[in-house]
Amino acid sequence: MSAMTYSTPRTPAATRAPQLAYRASPRGRRATTAPPVRLTLPASPTRLTRRGRVVVVLVLAALTLLAFSLGRSTTSDASRGKASTPRPTTVVQPGDTLWSIARRVSPDGDPRVTVSRLSSLNDLGGRPIQAGQRLTLPYPG
Questions:
Q1: What average pLDDT does this structure show over 6-15?
Q2: N or C: which end of the chain has fewer CB within 10 A?
Q3: What is the rounded CA–CA span in Å between residue 114 and residue 119?
Q4: Residue 58's pLDDT is what?
Q5: How far is CA 7 from CA 3, 4, 10, 129, in A?
Q6: Which stretch of DSSP H or E encloses residue 113?
């Protein structure tokens, strides 16, 4: 003789009978159907690969540089106060020096101060000027 095994068929969750729950009411306890309980597993934490971390860092760096550049351009225009008025310029003639230009621009002022302002406005940094070069002049005063 051979042994036979029988298995009971499982019914899908949709065809199962609803569970009964008892709820207290003013007229006594009544049986009501309760929604099925669903178990959810906690979501696993998001893991970034090395490439993902590099992309995130690059995006953040780009946004930071963009914010700084926007902030710098808006504050530099506002700090001048005279952004709508263009600064006067002059063209360096042969034989001109910063000292002679400073004396011509501000005859009553101290030429050392004017030379310093000319140098900083035109980003000269100690480099000599050349004939034909256009220099931005400081506002008088």
A1: 56
A2: N
A3: 9
A4: 96
A5: 13, 10, 9, 100
A6: helix 111-121
Q: Annotate 41-58 with b (16+ C-beta within 10 A) or e (fewer).
A: eeeeeeeeeeeeeeeeee
Q: What is the mean pLDDT of residues 23-48?
A: 68
Phi and psi torsions of 120, nearest 5°: -75, -35
* Residue 32, CA distances (Å) to 21, 22, 41, 128 in order: 5, 6, 28, 96
pLDDT digits (tens, 9 = 90+) for 45-90: 778 899 999 999 999 999 999 988 887 765 555 555 555 678 888 8
- Cβ-based neighbour number of residue 109 at 10 Å: 15
**Contact by Cβ (8 Å): 129, 135:** yes
Residues 106 and 112: their CA atoms lie apart, in Å, by: 11
Q: What is the pTM of this model?
A: 0.40
- DSSP type of residue 25: E
Residue with tokens 């914010």: 67
Amino acid at 54: V
